Amino acid sequence: STAVHSDVSPMTLTRYMIEESNQNLDKEHLVDLQGIMSGIQVACKKISSLVSRAGITNLTGLEEGGGSVNIQGEEQKKLDVLSNEVLKNSLRFSGKMGVIASEEEDEPVVVDEVASGNYVCVFDPLDGSSNIDAAVATGTIFGIFAEDDEQPCLINDDEGDLDAQKAACLIQTMQPGKNLVAAGYCMYSSSCMLVLTTGHGVNGFTLDPQIGEFVLTHPNMQIPSRGKIYSFNEANYPDWDPTLQKFVDSLKDGSNKSGAKYSSRYIGSLVADVHRTLLYGGIFGYPGDAKNTNGKLRLLYECAPMSMLLEEAGGLATTGRERVLDVMPTAVHQRLPLILGSKEDVQELVDLYQAE
Ligand code: P6P
């Protein structure tokens, strides 16, 4: 964007979205995305406030009455549930949503104002929430699809079979990541940063508490073509495939193509590990292994949005065997192996797999 940021007239996320759509009048989604991003950023500000005061307001720990368990079989933290409600409502009030799919919802939710909704939002409202009690970085991850015009999502009671209509809506969430019109995350850490792509480049906005606005601090983010950091949970090393074991060994002893010995950084919170990788370069992975062939991360609302961001920032995102954005979902909560980061680092591993 040619826009200029200054204290007198800050380049807020709201202003950025308006200017971006004015400069790309051919991209009709951008006008609708203004309203959607307005809802998402309000939700992220609210979640940031909830997270930063969790210990004070006794919002750490498990949902009331002991750990209610979500479809992931994970104990739901109070903040998971609250963050999910905050984001769901903000998206609903945008008036642009047809269907919402969340890590915290067993099934996708068809929102009320369906007649005006023609977008689908997939999100993890508070990823890494197991770290909350230890005040470690967490984040919200979101992706926005346009609805498939062939089968618009309309719930209309007098139009007959409600179940069939709802089924048509739910299918809207089963889109490959390459269909995303926008993706991003908001990281709740030493600062609150919202990183976003709407299909041409990646921009980072930092929440300025003095004005309560996300202001542009990282225009046109591009990941270095090669890094010196690898980020995997090495406790799983014994269960990795031999190719990955050899690759990571080569990063440790410097026998990889760069000749450099890498450092290891693993926060255990996807948003924080991806954010650091985006800024510093290197490679992050949650691969499949002998115990979990599809790894741990969810395709729809973790792998796909992060993969769009990395590709838009000049990086790569793969399962090891195929491009993440090409993967066609078959279930809302399906898991997928995820390797992402600097183009040269990721390509080196892909080449090793292809040479197997
Ligand atoms: P592990 C957090 O629980 C999470 O879903 C992601 O944010 C993170 O990347 C991953 O799990 C960490 O998993 O098995 O290394 O603790």
UniProtKB/TrEMBL annotation:
Class of this enzyme: hydrolase
A biological process term (GO) from this entry: sucrose biosynthetic process
SUPFAM superfamilies per record: Carbohydrate phosphatase (SSF56655)
Domain of life, per lineage: Eukaryota
InterPro entries: FBPase_C_dom (IPR044015), FBPase_class-1 (IPR000146), FBPase_N (IPR033391), FBPtase (IPR028343), Fructose_bisphosphatase_AS (IPR020548)
Residues annotated as domain Fructose-1-6-bisphosphatase class 1 C-terminal: 223-353
EC number of the protein: 3.1.3.11
Keywords recorded for this protein, A-Z: Carbohydrate metabolism, Hydrolase, Magnesium, Metal-binding
Keyword flag Ribonucleoprotein: no
Cofactor: Mg(2+)
Domain Fructose-1-6-bisphosphatase class I N-terminal: 11-219
Catalysed reaction, written as an equation: beta-D-fructose 1,6-bisphosphate + H2O = beta-D-fructose 6-phosphate + phosphate
Family: Belongs to the FBPase class 1 family.
Assembly and oligomerization: Homotetramer.
Protein name per the record: fructose-bisphosphatase
